[in-house]
Amino acid sequence: MVVHIVFFKFKPENRQANMIEAKRKLEQLLGSVPTLQSIDVGINFAEEERAMDMSIVTTFSSKEALEAYAVHPEHLKVVAFIKEVCEYTKVVDYERADA
User: Fold this and answer.
1) % helix / strand / coil in the chain, to the nearest 5?
2) What three-state secondary structure class fits 36?
3) pLDDT per residue over 1-60, tens digit each?
4) 54 by DSSP, 3-state: which?
5) In the chain, where are the structural domains located?
6) Which end of the chain is flanked by fewer CB atoms within 10 Å, N or C?
7) Per-residue DSSP letter, 60
8) What is the dotted CATH code of the domain comprising 2-95?
9) How many CB atoms lie within 10 A of CB 69?
10) From residue 21, how far is each of 26, 67, 85 by CA, in Å?
């Protein structure tokens, strides 16, 4: 199994509304992208300086399934929105043994 985690730092303009919209758009990918097995989207409540604003944890059956997700048209629409409203993102991808 492949785990794909992304952390998001949103621009200050319309920050809260953009986080809610990004969460909605990301959660809709579960029914739209066949290779996406699961997605957990969380808006951060910690106020530490080092804190990010939002994260997603997604799972895929393989690296190839993650690659298919990356170029899927529905995912790319969400990526375009994220690029407009975020200052930057960080990613972690890793393989784990199936439970």
Assistant:
1) 40, 30, 25
2) coil
3) 999 999 999 999 999 999 999 999 999 999 999 999 999 999 999 999 999 999 999 999
4) strand
5) 2-95
6) C
7) E
8) 3.30.70.100
9) 20
10) 9, 24, 10
